[in-house]
Amino acid sequence: MRDIAWLIGKTLQTTFRSKKNILFYLFTPLVGIFISLVAYGGQSGEMTFGVVNHDDGPIANETITFLKGLDNIQITEIGEGSIKEKVTSGTMDGVITFNQGYSTSVLAGEPDHIELTSIKGESVTGFVKSYLYQYIDNLSTLGKVADGDLAMFNRMYSDYQQQDVQLKTTTVEDSSASKTMTLSALGFLIMIMMFSAANLSEIILAEKENRTYFRLLSTPITARKYILSNVIVNMMVMIIQAIITLVFLSYVFQIDLNIPLWKALLVMVIFSLISVGLSLVIVAFSNSRSASNALTNLIIMPTVMLSGCFWPVEVMPESVQKIAAFLPQRWTLDTLTKLQEGNTFGSLYLNILILFAFAAALFLVAIYKFSHNNDTKSFI
Prior knowledge:
Layout: H1 2-15, H2 19-27, H3 29-40, E1 47-53, H4 58-68, E2 73-77, H5 83-88, E3 94-98, H6 102-107, E4 114-117, H7 122-146, H8 150-161, H9 176-209, H10 212-217, H11 223-252, H12 261-284, H13 289-306, H14 318-324, H15 328-340, H16 349-371
Parallel strand pairs: 1-2, 1-3
Antiparallel strand pairs: 3-4
Helix pairs in contact: 1-11, 3-9, 4-7, 7-8, 9-11, 9-12, 9-13, 9-15, 11-12, 12-15, 12-16, 15-16
Organism: Virgibacillus phasianinus
Transmembrane segments: 21-40, 185-206, 227-253, 265-285, 294-313, 348-368
Protein name: ABC transporter permease
């Protein structure tokens, strides 16, 4: 234990040997918060939805009028060709499309031919769905009673509109912006943690190149203790980065995580194991620091982008989304999203097991490679 404690102190001294390193490891994660604030901080409580009307029937027109009458939602009629651009650019929170046959289907009592396009998930679209689908259900009920008779439907619909109904409304706080901002900041934290882990593990290669590693092994210090001390320091830095980010989000910038802080921290601690495991795999397959840097950039940046750390994974093609399902970053963000939706850790046991499986697999690959690497004098 004394040897490990000494190695941990030595690794910490090497890691934080300059102010530049201190700033990089401890305060770079805050960059993600600032980027998220710039990207999402200006969002207002009013949602903006586009409407594409291919049906142009009386019921479709009445539905659009109903939508325009809802509070906190701005409805704009747009063309078919601008749907993707409006949604992906963030100009609109979503687009509702009434396809040909919508009015007929509602009149028949079987509503169909309506689509809701959005990349912001249930936190944004749930409000619209709750009102719109209820309204359409009411219309379809009238359609069933009218048995397809448009004149009778119009009379009943007129009576329906004139009903004297008491409705009490309560304004609730819109949490969609804070959820999106939180996930964006944590997505940047994931990227920074992975690069930080790679840089810390690269110390192993640096000390091999300057022969420090081999001098250490000439003492009672073993390769296992050396690697273990590096892993411990790596985990310490990862956890500190996660704590700093979450504390600044919650208490400095007053952004609601929509998750208990300890739950978010626990997920990031599990991901830190994955980051350290991946960094050891990179080191194990690298013969020099330049090779390690190349592998780091080749692996981390593409997987971070594919997993949805920078933008919602829903904007990417379906084939790319299937690839994202094999990435630990995707499962980490998915776990955080489901926790925001109110799921418990118990109900997310599969996500947690998958994250631990990623970490275990990476550590096993690193151990195997180190133990069979004769060129680098076998770490383990």
